[in-house]
Specification:
Blueprint: E1 14-15, E2 19-20, E3 27-29, E4 61-63
Antiparallel strand pairs: 1-2, 3-4
InterPro entries: DUF1540
Pfam family, one: DUF1540
Protein name: DUF1540 domain-containing protein
């Protein structure tokens, strides 16, 4: 897996050096950012990984892997 850089330090997967430590990363277009992926067709992580979309710029995408750290910071 390639190194994924991430500057969102309040994510549980954020690691020193601005690296993402998640085993799997889900990136979606903004148009689906609020979609409910807890449907039967979603995978075990709750994301539909079978559909395909197109984005013109990086600003039209978002990382659905983000999970905020708990208030204790762990």
């Amino acid at each position: 897996m390639p190194q994924v850089k991430c500057s969102v330090a309040n994510c549980v997967y954020w690691a020193q050096g601005n690296l993402c430590s998640a085993d799997e990363i889900m990136v979606e277009i903004d148009a689906h950012a609020n979609a409910n992926y807890n449907e039967e067709f979603a995978d075990e992580h709750g994301h539909d990984t079978e559909h395909q979309d197109k984005a013109s710029t990086s600003s039209e995408t978002c990382c659905l892997t983000f999970k905020p750290k708990s208030k204790s910071g762990k």
